What does this fold into?
Amino acid sequence: MIEPTRMSAVELINQMSAGHLSAEEVTRAYIDRIDRLDRSVKSFLLFDPESALTVARSIDQKRRNGEHLGPLAGVPIALKDNLCTPGLPTTCGSRMLQNFRPPYEATVIRKLREADAVFIGKTNMDEFAMGSSTENSAYGATCNPWDLERIPGGSSGGSAASVAADFAPLSIGSDTGGSIRQPAALCGIVGLKPTYGRVSRYGLIAFASSLDQIGPFAHDLADTSLLLQVISGHDPHDATSVDSPVPDYLATLEKPPERLRIGLVREFFSEGLDPEIEAAVREAVRLYVGAGATVKDVSLPHSKYGTAAYYIVAPAECSSNLARYDGTIFGHRAADWSPRTPEEAEIPPLIRMMMASRAEGFGAEVKRRIMLGTFALSAGYADQYYNQALKVRRLIRNDFDAAFADVDVLIGPTTPTAAFKLGEKAADPLAMYLSDIYTITTNLAGIPGLSIPCGLTKSGLPIGLQLMAPAFAEENLLRTARVFERQTDWHTRRPSLA
It folds into this structure.
């Protein structure tokens, strides 16, 4: 039999259902692999093997008793550490929440628990999901399993790396400007950002509330479809959750789309795109044409303003959301806020405590974005910056609506380059921000985006193909991606971890 850690979630479910494997055996196999190898990848912030084994044994007992089991019964899953798990630390990769244990449960966590998934651990991330490399974590960087000297992408780098390294068959991430799709591309796996409102954000610690969306990581589209179905659906706890029927994504995955009208986004093939990545994407398009697709060039003319608009809207919402971390009720509180100068002595003690706590609790990138957002919202500047960015956001959405009048799916690269070296862009925030240049606009428009493996560079680094579809068209998006996956074996490739 194949080693359990090399099986897909669907295969594991079939093997456990047939009695060939137990949930405990599966969980133990992943625990052993994490014990051996995660010290080099550093994908987990919290790893609790005993709790995972306890849950696995309870699932085996339910199976022996003939009790009803959920759709993910016995499947290990890794969770990004910005999802509230009651009684367990939820740090958001920040010193600010180092000792925070949520008193309530995120809706996605509840759905996974009810589906009988086994929580294998909480994964590393850029602090408060702000970053593209998982180097901004207060607890150290995560490494790319394909090359341990390179970044895994971000902000969901730990979740992506855990699947790429076969530490879990499935994981959960969040995507505010590309934080699922970009690390999926750089780690050679599948990552899906659902439509805004498809998956409840209740219990997701907010970065930018109008952009954040929770989604799945997996090795292939079948596993992605299964996990998406489990976590999707309306939630009265989330006012932005949409009450729309959830299709059976896995049941329809193998059904070819009724039509294959694909748009190639002209603006995604401009200066800055690595030639190897462009060649891999154009080869993917050639395969689609061979499968009967109609491909046409389309333009998203306002996409060139996407990065500028995003870095006003997202920091503005970040400034508002992170105002709650002031050391008074929860989160980090500075031990010493005594005045050091006569000027500081004039500041009321409560304000000094808040200033000291935020200075100690937040990292440099979070402070940078809070300052950007506070400035953009400040008196006299909100009309000049924030309101202007919202108008550009509307124009970007209009571009997508116009494109989808002629095609069903848009295609392009997920990232402009393959994974770069750790530390390579740490001193250049603008260069780091441009890592998400092809993913940001789907968040601004609120539509679904998917990254699937489509090749390797000459140096053996993964390349991602991005597909985008109209709002709530995830079913057709997955089926269209499956046309490519059937013809290639990129999704079967694995890194060689010593």
User: Anything to note?
Assistant: The chain has a mean pLDDT of 96. The chain has 17 helices and eleven strands.
